[in-house]
Amino acid sequence: MNTRTLLLSCMLALPTLSFAQTELTEAPATTEQAEQTPSESTSIVPNAYITDNLYIFVHSGAGKNYRILGSINAGTAVQVIGDERNGFVNVIDDKGREGWVEAEFVTTEAGLQITNQNLQAQLDALNVELQDSQNEVPTLQAKLNSLESENAELRQAVKDAETQKVQIQKEAMNKKQEQQHLLLSYGAAIAFSGLILGVLLTLFLSRRKRYDGWA
Prior knowledge:
Layout: H1 2-36, E1 48-50, E2 56-59, E3 68-72, E4 77-80, E5 88-92, E6 98-102, E7 106-107, H2 112-214
Antiparallel strand pairs: 1-4, 1-7, 2-3, 4-5, 5-6
C-alpha cells in the first residue's frame, strides 16, 4: 500500500518538476528578450486583461515548448487578436509585443489593478470638481448676498409704492369730499339767496300794490 502511494506521488510530481525545469530553462531567454524590448508603451485596443496576483510568460507559439519572448505583469491590458489554440491565445501586450499566453490567465474583466486605477482617476476628477466648487462658494455667496440686498430694496420700494398709493387715494377722497362740500355750500348759498330775493320781491310787490291803491 505504501509503495503504491509513493509511486502515485512520484507520478503526480513529475509534471510539476518538468514544468519548473522548463520555466527555469527558458527564464534566461525572458531576461534577454526583456533587455531587447523597448520600454516605451505602444497604443493598443484593450479587450482583455491578465489575471491578478501573477505574471505570465509570452511564448512565440501556442504552447509552452515555444520560445519565451518575455512576461506580462498581472492586471495588464492586452489585445486579443486570435482564437484560442491548444489552451493559448494570441495577444499584443501594452509594449507592442505579439505572442501567445495561456488562455486561462486572460479575462475580459479588468483586474483589481486596472479597477483601482480607474477608481483613483475618478476620485481625482471628483476632488478637482469639489475643489472648483469650493472655490466658487465665495463668489456664489457674494452673488446671493447681492440678490438678497436687491430683493430687500425691491420689497421696500413696493412697500413705499403701496403707502404712496394709499396716501394718494386718501388725498383724492378728501378732495372729492371737499368738492362735494363746496358744491353743497354753493347750492345752499344760492338757495338762500333765492329765498331772500323771493322774500324781497314779495315785499316789494306788496308795497307797490299798496301804493297803487292809495293813489
